[in-house]
Amino acid sequence: MKKVKRKRRKVANEIHHPTRASESEESDLHNSSSESCTDQSDENSECNVYLTHPAIKKKRSESLTATVVDIGSDELEASDDSSQHQEADDDNESVEIAAQPDEVLQEPDLVDPPFESNNEGATHAEGEEQGGSDSDGESGESGGSGESGESDESGEDMWMSESDPETEADNSDSNDESDRQSNSSDSDEEEATSSEDEHDDEGDGIFQENQPIYDNAPISLHESLLAIFNLAIAEHLSGVLLSKILELVALHCPANSLCKRTLHTLKVYFAKLGRAVLVYHYFCSNCVFPLKTKLSVCKKCKKSGNVSFFIEMPLLQQLQTLFLRSRFLEDLQYRFNRIGDPSHIRDIYDGRIYKEQVNNGFLNNPHNISFMWWSDGLQIFKSSINASIWPLCLVVNELPYKKRILPRNIILAGLWFGKAQPNPNIFLKPLKESLDKLSSDGYNLKLPDRSVVNVKGKILCGTCDLPAKAKFMRMKQFNGASSCAKCLCAGMRYALDSKSGKKTTIQVFPYVPNATERTHAQVQDCAARAVELRQAGDKDAAVHGVKGPSLLSFMLPDIVRSMGIDIMHGAFLGVAKWLVFLLFDAKFAKCPWSLNASLDVIDCRIKNMKPPTYVERPIRSIKKASAIWKAKEYKLFLLYYSVPVFLGIMNNEYFYHHCKLVSGLSLLCQDSISLDQVNVASDLLQSYVADFARLYHLRYLGMVFHQLVHLGSVVKDLGPLWVYSCFFLESFNSVVGKLFHGTRHVALQICSSFNLVMKMPELIEMLPENSLVRKFCNSVTYKREKFKVADIIRNNVYAVGKYCDKPQVVQSSKLLLRDNYEGMMNGTVRVFYRLKKDGILYFSQEYARSLNGRKEASYISYLNNNVPSIGRVIRYLKHQSCTPECENNCECAVSYFAVVRNYSRQMWYPHDHPDIRLPHLSKIVCTNRVEVIPIDCITNSVFHIKINNDEYAAKPLNTVEVE
């Protein structure tokens, strides 16, 4: 009888909640034995696969037909059986799906992949981005991303929390159990949660969301839950802590209030708000043939159980969400309102690719937009290294940089989930279909005022790490011959000495001056020839490194020039990581380049560094760099610290060589880059790579070093290096990795939760203008300043802390004002020690905590009569021209100043080598000159680097990146 009741309940749930049947199918995919996509399936890639969820009864548009298009490979043939196509076509259905948070098992752990070593023990940048042992270079394809983002793993958030008490019984299930093993636990789960679901559904039917949370309460149920959810997302609250907060809120309310008292009921409420139109795409991992369900037998290869799927999140709905936000359309006009030298390269709009689209009229329309695509793998279960998710994301180029990188402004176009790595053409096909419509006809989108605007868009560029780039471009991996995406340099195999006697080789790329660059047409021709060779029987054929056609050729203006080079993985987790390994590892102690003997001295210098307050991650001990350093630490070390730290320790020839690298990268990372600087940087990096094999060893000259020679041309095409750096995208990946908990329905949880996060600004804007809940949500979302404000000077400028009224300090400050500005002797002067200006917190020399803290923010760059200068702030002043007769709230003129001790620049190493340009680095010496400057003259906080008795100042290379 119990089984009958469970079965009836399950049928009823599927009637009232049609997504549950679909979710149960997806949930077991993690436990299926699907294999990684082989090269064979990778070649069968240009397919129209439009399979959606089998549990849905609504038809999708007839234009989305399930067909298989032959790309010229005999391994993928369109079936002559029309019934097969009809059967696949019947699956073209879309559905509103919301993740069911009550169906969860156990929490996963996110781990950073280790810094692996090759057969000789040398460490590999990006996990596998350097070297390899396979003769043809194909065995080194990485399924992951190398670095899993720059976010701190200080604690799990609400999506990676322990299971709710309502689903505690499910935690005993292993994520590796088969479908048959989990059937009984599924039934138990349904019975355990059904009564609660029924109660929750009934409650939602009785109580309206806009009803007060209790009689005469100042906020409604919806406002209460919105505030709690917003806080949980912004502060990454764990599920346990959030449950306690719900209990605490309930304690403050009457017993008959509408409070949600459990984490489960909160999630169910927001699961409904986060519903999104999702389209499922199932296919056979062996032959890339469309499947009706994951249990279907493939009608081409006659196999079953080897199934992959991905979810498409339609572009139209996400664009509509963005355009409904206030000021979004206004933000898109940023490109037309920029201030600066138009001859300089300052953003993607100044690159040749973007200008070509402006000149042909497409991006000259203020309503049209362009995207940068990105994808990367993220391991989601510590116990299953093969299970991963691959988000396919679009970044809106027209937004100001600091807004375009925010997770709520990034479009999640698709999500690949499972043990199989993405087949790129299948993964990209739905997005290509949407973009074809968007670029030709456009979408009519509503604005906040309910007017309609026609918006067109296209993808202009893309970025990702080396393994993902090779996969999506259908090229050999970076450790194979002819694997450079920019030129036809083939490289060579370098034989390693092996103690086991086995002959092992790795791929290296000796410097080739003026290497032939690839072109869009040439890549397409190579792809066609590769298909012909594979049809002739050579299943591993590649022509100049190209293994087959990529849909990117039809989605990008130029598949070669439109692909950026990511400096996060390439320059920092690649080149910088290799250099730290070569310079400091004990195995190279006898090599001419080694600094191992000076490791303690260098480590001591680094430990004494105190970066400005805007640096998120100060550098830790270099002795453990390969194990603990993140990409931003390598970046700080390479671009800001390494030159003054190595000066006097490193051999002159090697130091000069190192300065070429730092100079070239620094010039290309600036806010504004002249064409002359691009050419100088390109020459420096070419020279660096040309000399590397002679100074170090050819064995270490892998792809991460080779691609340095292409950075100059990439900047000319796409803008400064920070435009397409993966720093913010890897952080986005870590956000995606936290949008679920448990091991079931992972893809659904992520899509539903992401859709809700994307809708959050709209939900907040729907609240009344004077709503206290709206103010609270905005303060949480936009991270209002967490400091005591003494005075609001103007928008985004604050006097921080308390005013000091010590007579001696005030009197000396008055004298300084009188000496520098006439008429300032009269009035009142107040002293303060911290200033918040344009998002940067500045200290002063007299601020006591700056002496003992890990950060130092009293050194500044400023303009003195429009002359760039370096100095150290002693204190800050507020001058008000009040008279004794003034009342407390008088409107007398107020001025704010900084008392600054000037530092003069000194001649040093770069001045003896005119080809070395380090405009952000200066050797400085303290002077006796004290100046009083308006706070508007302060331009930035600078790094202060003290090495023995020498002092250096390093200005931030740009003002858009967070260091």
| Strand runs, count | 24
Backbone CA Rg: 30 Å
Q: DSSP helix count?
A: 29
N→C terminal distance: 64 Å
Low-confidence stretches: 1-207
Overall geometry comes to globular
Structural class: alpha+beta
Strand content: 15-25%
Question: Could you estimate the helical fraction of the residues in percent?
Answer: 25-40%
The description of the largest β-sheet is: 8 strands, mixed
Summed over residues and divided by their number, the pLDDT gives a mean of: 77
Oligomer: single chain
Overview of the molecule:
This protein has 963 residues and is an alpha+beta fold. The protein is built from 29 helices and 24 strands. The strands form 5 sheets. Strands 1, 2, 3, 4, 5, 6, 7 and 10 form an 8-stranded mixed β-sheet that branches. Strand 11 and strand 12 form a beta hairpin. The longest helix is centred in the N-terminal third of the chain and has 28 residues, at 179-206. Residues 11-29 have a biased composition (Basic and acidic residues). This is Halomucin. Residues 128-139, 163-176, 186-204 have a biased composition (Acidic residues).
From the structure above, extract its key features.
8-stranded antiparallel beta sheet; 8-stranded mixed beta sheet; disordered N terminus; alpha+beta; globular; 29 helices; 963 residues
